Amino acid sequence: SSAALPADPPPVAERSLLVLLLLASQWKKSGQDKNKFRESIKLLKDAQVSEDSDMAISFRVLYQLICRSYFHISQLPSEEICLILYLLMVENEDFRVYVLSRLDPEILLLQILRLLYDGVEGKTNYSQMYILLTILLLFSQDEVFNENIQKIQITYQPWFTERLLKSISLGGLA
User: Fold this and answer.
1) % of the chain with per-residue pLDDT over 90
2) Which of 29, 81, 133, 162 is found 20 to 30 A from 8 (Cα to Cα)?
3) Terminus-to-terminus CA distance in the chain, angstroms?
4) Which domain of life does the protein's organism represent (predicted)?
């Protein structure tokens, strides 16, 4: 779908995200082999490349929503966004490939690094830091992604106060 994202998601968006996380995290019922909600996340396809409209969503819009949440443009809580990003990266290979193949990894990666940096200062809780570190680990397992972030030069970042950064590769900062 090429529809633009709303400026602020409706209040139901936060609750929906929590319900989705809760359902996907539940143990399977006795007699069932798999959690159907988690399996549905695994089966999601990108609407731009899939003709299966039942299990297709726009990965571009989803990625933009996740990035906007990290930039605090939306009102979705960052801990829940971290969890849904983690769940999508672990369970859905198509989404993971989409994120890893983006030409602008700094948009998401810098925000993750900022949240981790804030965690050292005590502004981010430990469970969120754990999820963020796990997401970074998922990114680091892709050789092409690692090569690409070494080529992206980053300049001054206002949140990084340890020393003045004139220019460093994104991989060097990560």
Assistant:
1) 4
2) 133
3) 33
4) Eukaryota
